[in-house]
Amino acid sequence: MLRRIAALILICSHASALRPTRRQALKGTAGSTVMLNFLPGAARAAAKGLGLPTKETNDVVSTVDGIRRKRLGNSDIAVSELALGTQRWGGADFNSPDEELCHQLLDRGVLEGGINLIDTAEQYPIPSDRSRPEGATEEIIGRWLKKGTGRRNKVVLASKITGGRNINKRSIREDCEGSLKRLGVDTLDVYLLHWPARYTPQSNWGQSLEYDWDLGAITVPSAASFREIVSAMGELIREGKIRGYGACNDNAVGLMGMYGAARELGVPGPLCMQNDYSIVNRRVEENGLSEASSPAIANAGFMAYNVLAGGMLTGKYGLAPGDGVAPAAVDDGDRARAKRYAE
Known about the structure:
By secondary structure, the protein is an alpha/beta fold. It has 13 helices and ten strands. It is globular and about 60 Å long.
């Protein structure tokens, strides 16, 4: 016990030494900003080393039916390592699952398996049409939730607000309330920006290695600021409409921008990010997002989508004409064969 007390005193002493002077703080030097941003992670790492309780993203909280559930950020939200992605649920093309099949998938994954994370968006299904409009996927999930008591407590619901110019303080609230209504719930566990409000280099949904602030100021001059975004999310958290937030199809700039703004405003920081990630797409490891997400810095979780590269990594699709293997259904000129494989 004395060792722990002495170590904590030492940690506090080092933290005090790292704290910028009043002159540095007023100048807002890059050095002082970096030191302030790193202190929370350093404190968590020190506490963990001493055996004290901490909340680090990716902590394994439990295992259900062989599937581990891990903590998102520093929250009490624990999500299964496998999730049900719903982009095409109820969609307008011939190989999208209809509502009956979607409910069967939910039954198998949630009620009979160890999955608890359902990822959706107000823009789903993709593709949509007049009879199957955007928002229909959330309604499909909502009707499944109503089929049995206690189902809401079995799942972690993550949804997304349409990105770009749609993102501002007013629309964050209104779109969130729209998702809540379609899902038939009072609270979203995770609310994500589907893509950033600001300019991003459109290389695979803004995940490229370069970022040009000056170009962004010209191309999207009215984009919602990080302060506006996290302030709106903080209000929704206080009102119990969401438990946490984050961003999809973004990079380290987006994560650290929200993280810094949240610390400045005194609101909870982002819980997680969501990006395209597979063994053939490692951009999040190259552009700094994986490092920024670590418990030592932003302590944010990560949700990967397209982990099989659109099915290419399963080996079931042909990669070249004449290789004897059918291509993906959407690329197959033989529509009868494509429909047969999709069934």
